[in-house]
Design brief:
By secondary structure, the protein is of the alpha+beta class. The protein is built from one helix and three strands.
Length: 103
């Protein structure tokens, strides 16, 4: 099942004139958890797909190539993994809190 995430980052790319452009971006992405190899079928890595990219506070043209840029996809993947870790920690703390209610 795909999950959605939102990342705010500062990113630099080269525009069509060859000039470097730096802008704050809001990136919305979809993430699907991969799975390991089994005897019957090969595994699959996590999948990240960028859904939308919007500049924050500036009017810059977002090139289509950013939707498949490895560095930006890696940032989205790292953000998604961090969200998963925070959710696991929250669930564990909630379980600890509920067990302590009886004391």
């Amino acid at each position: 099942m795909a999950e959605r995430g939102r990342l705010t980052t500062t990113f630099t790319w080269e525009d069509r004139n060859g000039d470097n452009v730096e802008a704050r971006l809001r990136v919305i992405y979809s993430a699907t958890k991969g799975y390991p190899d089994t005897w019957e079928e090969p595994g699959s890595p996590d999948e990240i797909e960028i859904i939308s990219i919007a500049p924050i506070g500036s009017e810059v043209e977002i090139p289509l190539a950013l939707y498949t840029d490895d560095q930006l996809l890696d940032e989205c993947h790292a953000d998604w993994i961090e969200m998963q870790e925070e959710a696991r920690e929250w669930r564990a703390q909630s379980r600890r809190d509920s067990m302590m209610e009886g004391f």
